[in-house]
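Below: protein 1.
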Amino acid sequence: MSKFENNAVTWFEIPTADFQRATEFYESVLDVKLRAYPGPELCNMFPIEQGGVGGCIVQRDGHTPSNAGALVYLNAEGKLDASLKRAEKLGAKVLVPRTEIPGGFGFYACLQDSEGNHVGLHSSLF
């Protein structure tokens, strides 16, 4: 089976107003290195394992950062608290602090990123 058959989400895009600022924000918050996608528009992809669900930050006409649209939860496995602290140091606003998900599904938190998007973080640990 492909990831398209196993997952509700197959790809996501987070819009940016300042591509470099957004790249630095997500690399710092998640402690990862984004990878440039070869194409005509500014697009950096989040790290992904074979068969996993991927996504990117992108700067494209008609795509404007917003805190009123869809909510994407990024993987902060084992580093949720550290990710929130890094986000706050970068000026992000924590909208929902670390919160336990009933039923043993881990923890989540939500923040407003450097571009004004409402983004979630998820981890089974904090």
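Below: protein 2.
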Amino acid sequence: MKIALIGYGKMGKEVERVARLRGHSVCAVIDRVDPGATRKELDSSGSCLKEADVVVDFTVPASVSGNIRKVTAAGKSMVVGTTGWYDGMTEAKQLVGQAGTGFIYSSNFSVGVNIFYQIVEAAARLIDRIPEYDVFGYELHHSQKLDSPSGTAKSIAEILLKNISRKKQVQYEKLDRKINPEEIHFASIRSGSIPGTHIVGFDSEADTIELKHAARNRAGFALGAVMAAEWLRGRKGFFTMNDFISDLFR
């Protein structure tokens, strides 16, 4: 495939590296500040995307909706790994439908993390039957990460809420009170160079069960994004990583 990259930070460069290893080429790099970019702006006509089979976006939340408008207007399919733009989801679905293109997004493109989601879901369903177990979570990321909690933490928390009927709300901030029985506390830690670690725990008077995913580097995220781009080629519609993972293990 020919891939256009929007955003050429650490993740954009890792996506490029992995894509080339898998036999693909990068035909355009759009980034406002990096000297290695081929363009500073994604123009409204989409002319810099003409050769691309798919566009991969790892930018910032404020840029994503505008990028989606320009990419769909150019008739190109898109992979979005940026988090925090989800207020624009309704518009994105409309634009993809009107353009007849393909679109896939995820809070985390790591295949390992998406397997972890399924493990957490299965565990939560079991814990739902045993009220003696409480549930908690926490995540660790590097000191340069811009958001807290992470998009992955929010996805995990939603899985827990969906599958444990006695839990109704997630608290991400510190608590200066006793936690309520219907709440889940999911904490965030920022320090050093940690690529990303997520832990879910189930605790009773007798024991504690912990599930953990720890990323070693950005390679897993980039690999998942490139694999998702490969899967998206030739498909039309609005997809999440769950669709890709479900198809992968069918």
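The chain has a mean pLDDT of 94.
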